[in-house]
Amino acid sequence: MGLVDGKVAIVTGGGANIGEACAKMLASNGASVVIADINLEGARRVADEIKEAGGTAMASAVDLGDEDTIVAMVTAAVERFGKINILHNNAANTGAEQMTRDGSLAEMDQQVWDAAFDINTRGTMLVTKHTAPQIIAAGGGSIINTSSGVSLLGDVLNPAYSASKAAVNALTRNTAAQFGQANIRCNAILPGLVLSPVARAQMSEEQLSMIQRHVLLPRESVADDIAGAVLWLASDLSSFVTGQIISADGGICHHQPHYADMMDMFAKA
After folding, report:
1. Domain-located, residue 206
2. What is the domain count for the chain?
3. Among residues 11, 35, 50, 161, which one is catalytic?
4. Has residue 35 been placed in a domain?
5. Highest-confidence range of 172-176, 205-209, 262-266, by mean pLDDT?
């Protein structure tokens, strides 16, 4: 018997990377999962792999910049499975073109800034807007937002992305406050650098090594690290946890700035 047996979950951005791992983790623990993604081919692949493994899933096309597609996705989920208990707001605008243009504030293109907020923040709000009434009708449930460790700290790159994710943190707390009495919990998970194939392709070995020096645990993060946290927040094991901003980053955002240098000094002593 799985931790979310008999529940119905929507995972946005479920067609690859972290979303794929989360969808498969929920399905392997008994949930029927709606794989929602702008990349319908990827969503269908993940849904097929879940079904081949004995789980229950369906693919649904959704564009978080288009509210009509969000309404259609929620409607299709209810028509297929009869209810919604879990929403994992995971989708974000992290394409290479967007992220490489998200750099200097002094040279920020307004379109790049708006594109981050349109999908990462407004899109998360719109999916919540249309899904929450269905979760209430089902007697309550759990909403889990994917934020990011960069929402907590300043950096020299990606200010639009980090600001949009900081807004997701605020949205998480507001969602928890507004829907708590309807038995909906809402929490956010903040990954660090999760080494998906996309992340590896976009970063040099030097960059990866530089970041890994600041991870407190002796390994790299993988997508299942986030999926495990999502499963816990989706399940009744976390039934009194709401409004929380939870890091799942190996401690990278929670140590003194000189940590890596001190560890190098101790290793040379």
Report:
1. no
2. 1
3. 161
4. yes
5. 172-176
The CATH number of the domain where 69 resides is what?
Answer: 3.40.50.720
Cβ atoms of 78 and 68 within 8 Å: the answer is no
pLDDT band at 102 (very low <50, low <70, confident <90, very high): very high
DSSP string, 150-185: GGTS--SS-HHHHHHHHHHHHHHHHHHHHHGGGTEE
Contacts of 200 (CB under 8 A, 6+ apart): 208
Residue 199: its pLDDT value, please?
A: 72
* Residue 54 counted as domain residue: yes
Burial 3-34 (b: 16+ CB within 10 A, else e): bbeebbbbbbbbbbbbbbbbbbbbbbbbbbbb
pLDDT above 90 for 269: no
Q: Which domain holds residue 97?
A: 8-201+220-255
**Residues whose CB is less than 8 angstroms from the CB of residue 6 and which lie 6 or more positions away in sequence, other chains included:** 30, 31
User: H/E/C letters for each residue in 132-157?
Assistant: HHHHHHCCCEEEEEECCHHHCCCCCC
Q: Which residue spans within the chain are E strands per DSSP?
A: 8-12, 32-37, 56-61, 86-89, 141-146, 184-191, 245-248
Predicted TM-score of the model (pTM): 0.96
CA 111/CA 29 separation, integer angstroms:
41
Amino acid at position 242, single letter: T
Does residue 161 have an active-site annotation? yes
Sign, Cα dihedral of 5, 9, 13, 18: negative
Residue 63 and residue 69 in contact, taking contact as beta carbons nearer than 8 Å = yes
Q: Please check whether residue 251 lies inside any domain of the structure.
A: yes
Q: Is the pLDDT of residue 197 over 80?
A: no
